[in-house]
Design brief:
Layout: E1 6-7, E2 9-12, H1 14-18, H2 28-41, E3 45-49, H3 55-67, E4 72-77, H4 81-90, E5 97-104, H5 107-114, H6 118-133, E6 138-144, H7 151-164, E7 168-173, H8 180-193, E8 201-206, H9 213-222, E9 227-230, H10 244-253, E10 260-261, H11 269-280, H12 301-309, H13 337-346, H14 353-369, H15 375-388, E11 393-401, E12 409-416, E13 419-426, H16 430-441, E14 447-455, E15 464-472, E16 475-483, H17 486-507
Parallel strand pairs: 1-10, 2-3, 2-9, 3-4, 4-5, 5-6, 6-7, 7-8, 8-9
Antiparallel strand pairs: 11-12, 12-13, 14-15, 15-16
This protein binds 3-methyl-2-oxobutanoic acid and zinc ion.
Zinc ion (ZN) binds next to loops.
């Protein structure tokens, strides 16, 4: 008789801890798209933001609460009542609201960050959890820097949190310092020593500073944790968090020694990875487990020979299991709306009518320029469409001259709030000339943080995807665009980033919220 697999709750914090990584800021619409996909994928808890930290985070938690159909929606708060009340307020529309409240428990944090002693921290834990319980029955409490906390004190803290009504106890390795054996022991100790530990769910939350985040999380599960906190592509503070796709697939592939399951539809992992990478502008390293471009590529002759004889010689999971399909030849320039819509649906995209019409027109233009249109081309095109939104600034016309022995020149026409503006600018290269022209037509102080080009598919007729990251007064935005003309893609990507900056400036205007405890 086989023993039934126990479920592990997948708590995704891409929109909160993930968004905290430098340069990973997302617009409101991008957060909603990610939340929808996480919900569809089967994530159990979506940590949508830190409501008191900014009006943008508050709004994100509020709106995500309304659109999410099955997952719990979670808002982070420190121990102060203002934080908790703000989180409770933001979560009002959620079917299953969760407040996640935390305070530091390690000696170094208590002394230098909080300036609080043990008794004050214990009191704050009791008060914060009790306050959060007024808003919802799902209250998670975290001991920030738990892995560097004195074990006896950690047990006392967890005891107070449970008595005050916490339903989930999270054990963060905030600085990514722990090792699998050590992390295992901490979870085991808490479950053994704290009274009523069996009434709550223990949760892992591990940072990847030593590259051990996934290993530590799995060690936590083996020790009895039944919730894992993670992010898509492992994005997050510094070296990131545990990668969701790695946790899910490790549990799926190694059921033989880890008898657990999750609600995740692993076939959506690749799509989630691409969406998060495209929104943040953080490329996924080629050799990244599960979702890297080379994760299923077999290059060496010996491997290829083995694979042809029997796939299991070198493959422990199938690419289709994570939503990776062999590049397929797409529609041609004679394909109609119906075939295009079918293709989009097969790829998991659902577009509103006007967005569909725009995407179809762009597909036709692309099919005119490019002999073979692949799935990757369609994905790039639709992502562009969704990234664009209702833009204040648009590229109307671009002509670039460059070559050996001539000064690169860009002649550009932009539309700004319906107004046409034209200029010709020189630069030390064609991209420099284009960006100078944009700056002249739409003056701004943002600085360029990243300029990156990659090919969507193979071949010299491939589309180029350009990523541009701009920074202005602490606000970071990432623009992206694809085109068969690399210079046009560069102009569109820069303008895409500028449009996001315009939106961000407007959103940051409301009352500034204090982040104090
Ligand atoms: O890493 C950490 O300690 C956190 C807490 C807020 C849970 O992200
Ligand atoms: Zn964290």
């Amino acid at each position: 008789m086989t023993t039934p697999l126990q479920n592990i709750t997948i708590f995704d914090t891409t929109l909160r801890d993930g968004e905290q990584s430098p340069g990973a800021a997302m617009t409101h619409e991008e957060k909603l798209r990610i939340a929808e996909l996480l919900d569809e994928m089967g994530v159990d808890v979506i940590e949508a933001g830190f409501p008191i930290s900014s009006p943008g985070d508050f709004k994100a938690v509020q709106e995500i609460s309304k659109i999410v159909k099955r997952a719990s929606v979670c808002g982070l708060s420190r121990a102060g009542f203002k934080d908790i009340d703000r989180a409770g307020e933001a979560l009002k529309g959620a079917r299953r609201p969760r407040i996640h409240t935390f305070i530091s428990t390690s000696p170094v944090h208590m002394k230098h960050k909080l300036g609080m002693g043990e008794n004050a921290v214990l009191e704050a834990i009791g008060a914060s959890v009790t306050r959060a319980r007024n808003y919802t029955g799902e209250v998670e409490w975290s001991a920030e820097d738990a892995t560097r906390t004195v074990p006896d004190f950690l047990c006392r803290c967890v005891d107070v949190a449970i008595n005050a009504g916490a339903t989930v106890i999270n054990v963060p390795d905030t600085v990514g310092y722990s090792t699998p054996q050590e992390y295992y022991e901490i979870i085991r100790m808490l479950r053994e020593r704290v009274p009523n530990a069996d009434k709550v769910v223990f949760s892992t939350h591990v940072h990847n500073d030593l590259g051990l985040a996934v290993a530590n999380s799995l060690a936590g599960v083996l020790a009895g944790a039944r919730q894992v906190e993670c992010t898509v592509n492992g994005i997050g503070e510094r070296a990131g968090n545990a990668a969701l796709e790695e946790i899910v697939m490790a549990l799926k592939v190694r059921k033989d020694i880890m008898p657990f399951t999750t609600h995740i539809n692993s076939k959506l992992l690749s799509r989630a990875s691409k969406l998060v990478s495209s929104v943040t502008g953080f490329p996924v390293q080629y050799n990244k487990a599960i979702v890297g471009k080379n994760a299923f590529a077999h290059e060496s002759g010996i491997h290829q020979d083995g694979m042809l004889k029997h796939v299991e010689t070198y493959e422990i999971m199938r690419p289709e299991d994570v939503g990776v399909h062999a590049t397929s030849l797409m529609l041609g320039k004679l394909s109609g709306r119906h075939a295009f819509r079918d293709k989009l649906e097969a790829m998991g995209y659902v577009l509103a009518d006007d967005a569909f019409e725009d995407a179809f027109k762009r597909f036709k233009d692309l099919a005119d320029k490019k002999k073979h249109v692949f799935d990757e081309d369609i994905a790039a095109l639709v992502d562009d469409e969704i990234m664009r939104g209702h833009d204040a600034i648009g590229v109307k016309h671009l002509r670039v001259e460059s070559g050996t022995g001539i000064e690169p020149v860009a002649a550009l026409t932009l539309t700004v709030e319906g107004d046409e503006r034209r200029i010709t600018a020189e630069g030390d290269g064609p991209v420099d000339a284009i960006f100078k022209a944009i700056r002249a037509l739409y003056p701004h102080t943002a600085t360029l943080q990243l300029f990156q080009i990659s090919a969507v598919t193979e071949g010299t007729d491939a589309q180029a995807t350009v990523t541009v990251r701009l920074e202005e007064e602490g606000r970071t935005v990432t623009g992206k665009a694809s085109d068969t003309d690399t210079m046009a893609a560069a102009a569109y990507a820069y303008v895409n980033a500028l449009n996001k900056l315009v939106v961000k400036r407007q959103k940051q205007a409301p009352e500034a919220l204090t982040v104090a405890q």
